[in-house]
Amino acid sequence: MKNCRRASPAVRPDVRVVSTLAAVIALAVFGIAALTSLDIAAAVFYGVVVLLVASAGNRPATIAAAWGCVVLMLLGFMISHNGAYSGGAIARCAVSLLAIAITSILALRNMAATAMLHEQVEMLNLAQEALARSTAELAHVTRITMLGEMAASVAHEVTQPIAAIVTCGSAALRWLNRPAPEIDEAAQSVTQMIRDAKRADEVIQRIRSMAKKRDRLPVTVDLNGIVGESIELMRLELERHRVELKSDLAAPPPTACCDRVQLQQVLINLIMNSVQAMADVTGPRKLRIATRRFDHEHVQVIVQDSGTGISEENSHHLFNAFFTTKAEGMGMGLSICRSIVEAHGGRIWAESPAAGGAVLQFILPVDEGRCHEQ
After folding, report:
1. Calpha distance 196→81 (Å, rounded)
2. Of 333, 342, 336, 335, nearest to 320 (Cα)?
3. Rounded CA separation 300/365 (Å)
4. What are phi and psi of 367, to 5 degrees?
5. What are the average pLDDT values for consecutive 10-residue runs of the chain, which has 374 residues?
6. pLDDT of 141
7. What is the pLDDT of residue 369?
8. Which residues form the Histidine kinase domain (predicted)?
9. Sequential DSSP letters for 250-304
10. φ, ψ for residue 13 (rounded to 5)?
């Protein structure tokens, strides 16, 4: 509401200026028409007056201007001819009135079409906002579902540092309970406990970040760091499926301006998709994750597996919503990946190399200080 109140004063002076200018032109045209017999020329200028008022977008004012011009046209005609009306003069006056009427009707129709176009644009904007909200909601639900599927990995990631804390705590007590307490050894065990506690806290914070419902928050992100965190979260899943992982990370680490949690969601989705694609493979299950500079303006992340590959028939629909080749799949994982990547100004696509398997890759704009400008 505050924005509307501030915008109104900026519009009203324009309407008043246009109306005043139109009135001045109309009176000047009336004076010329009353003193001369230039009926057709007067009609042209009256048409300009109507169009000028219509440009302000005020329908009642445009109708009033049209009727005012008709009245002035008739008064000017009567004054200039002083009661001596020839057939030609009456015909010119009729044509002039018709010209004013046609100009007014076209101006009003144009105003109606413009108003309808504005309404359609507003409806389109509302629809786009609703679509963006729905996509964000769906991405959040998918993250929660994905965390459920990763429950074993999450438990493993948290249990490991907790078990290490217990071990180091017991060791510290043993060092302290000796006849001659080993303070340095006990301190080293306590330091290890603190490090493991921080590690457990980082795991929990990552899980909480993924589960949290919030707006997109672009920051400068180290792609190599995100890849490493995603691999750690998926470590147990990779071991359970006997997947041989190879990381090929660029140096120096490439950076991009994007939402850290959403980028991690994309990576985990792609890794899980590759793991599932290799589930029925009897040979070696190899997964390669790489980062590199794609060109001067983009950085690239590549997830390559040795799975069953992508058929030509499915390649065109792979990132469509609700498309899946898995009996139990929902067909939303890769679609959400595409939405997230494209929302960050990037592009995602898939390839099926001749050697077999599939390559899922995406590019993102290089961070060139844009995050600090937002």
Report:
1. 104
2. 335
3. 9
4. -75, 115
5. 40 60 72 60 77 82 85 78 69 80 87 87 84 66 60 61 83 88 88 82 67 67 90 82 91 87 84 86 90 91 88 72 56 75 88 86 81 55
6. 65
7. 62
8. 153-368
9. -SSPPEEEEEHHHHHHHHHHHHHHHHHHTTT--S--EEEEEEEE-SSSEEEEEEE
10. -60, -35
Q: How far apart are CA 59 and CA 64, in angstroms?
A: 9
Q: What's residue 305's pLDDT? A: 92
Residues listed for the chain: 374
Q: Residue 228 is encoded by which pair of tokens?
A: 């490493």
Question: Could you tell me if 190 and 172 are in contact, meaning their C-beta atoms sit under 8 angstroms apart?
Answer: yes
Distance from C-alpha of 219 to C-alpha of 132, rounded to nearest angstrom: 20
Instruction: Give 366's strand partners.
Output: 256
Helix then strand count (H, E) for the chain reads: 11, 7
pTM of the full predicted structure? 0.49
Are the beta carbons of 180 and 162 closer than 8 angstroms?
A: no
Cross-strand bridge partners of residue 351:
359
pLDDT value at residue 99: 81
Domain ranges of the chain: 2-128, 150-213, 214-373
How many other CB atoms sit within 10 Å of the CB of residue 60? 7
Is the bond into 252 cis (omega within 30 degrees of 0)? yes
> So what's the pLDDT on residue 244?
92
What are the tokens at 91? 């015909």
Measured distance CA(141)–CA(352) in Å, rounded: 30
CATH architecture of 214-373: 2-Layer Sandwich (3.30)
- Buried b / exposed e over 107-135, threshold 16 CB at 10 Å, is bbeebeeeeeeeeeeeeeeeeeeeeeeeb
DSSP string, 98-131: HHHHHHHHHHHHHHHHHHHHHHHHHHHHHHHHHH
pLDDT score at 290? 94
Q: What is the DSSP secondary-structure string of 343-365?
A: HTT-EEEEE--TTSSEEEEEEEE
What is the helix (H) or strand (E) element at residue 153, kind and residue range? helix 151-176
**CA proximity to 362, closest of 284, 280, 286, 273:** 273
What Cα–Cα distance (Å) separates residue 336 from each residue in 19, 179, 265? 53, 62, 9
Residues in contact with 46: Cβ distance below 8 Å, sequence separation at least 6, in sequence order? 26, 29, 69, 72, 73, 96, 100
pLDDT of residue 364: 92
